[in-house]
Structure formats: C-alpha cells, structure tokens
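Human:
If only I could read backbone structure tokens as easily as an amino acid sequence. I am handing you a single protein, as its sequence and its fold in token form. I hope you can help me see how the letters and the tokens relate. Thank you; the sequence and its tokens follow:
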Amino acid sequence: MHNKPHTEEAKKKMSQALKGRTAWNKGKKLPQISGKNHYNWKNGKFISRGYIYILNKNHPFAEKRGYVLEAHLVMEKKLGRYLLPKEVVHHIDGDKLNNSIKNLVLFATQSVHIKLHKLKDKESDIGISNRTFKKNSC
C-alpha cells in the first residue's frame, strides 16, 4: 500500500533495461490525430496573447509550427509584398482581434511604433482624449 522510493540499485537496473530502446512513436507523425483530424482543430487559426494566428506554412516569416499573425497577412495583402523583418503592424483601436485594414497602420521600425504609444500615454496623462492619429504621423 505504501509507496517506497526505489533504491539506487533498483534505479540503476531500470535505467539499464531501457537503454538503447526507442520510443514507439519517436519520429512518427500521427496523421489520425493531427491537423484537420484533431478534435481541437479550428481551421488553422488560434489566438495567443490576444493576437490571431493563421496557418501558412509557406510564408517566409512563419514561426516553427507554420503560423503567421493575421494582421501581418492582411497588411501584406494590402501592400502586395511581404513585410520587412523590422516593420511593425499597429492596431489603431488597440483591439488586437480587429484585423480590418482600416484598423491597421504600418510602422517602419519598433522604435517609431513605441514613440506613438509614448505620445498617446502623455496625452492621456494631461487629459487629451479621443485624438485621432493619422496614418502618416510619427
């Protein structure tokens, strides 16, 4: 009934018995439970940290599982090219799920994007509200 910890000798024997064995599923993909066949499949979309990711394995900037931010795909479609690695897509209304092209602004670098946020923070501190930022500002 009581679980006693294994002795060092028993641990050594168990370790030796398993040496050289390969796990039954090592290197195997399980097609019956992956991708579209998985019970939790959501048509190649998922939300992480408030952003929508879309499955696009052929995209040059896809993360290792093959997903790309939807906002990036929307902006790339509008521009007719891939985004440059330093470019940043900003959500005007702050809603990271709203990836309408009217809600997206492209910044050349993260530092320019941060300047916009600092400017917004300063204005909220001094009581200026509801100011609209033009796409060419900053």
About this structure: Confidence is low (pLDDT under 50) at residues 134-138. The helical segments are 8-18, 70-79, 110-125. The longest helix spans residues 110-125. The longest strand covers residues 51-55.
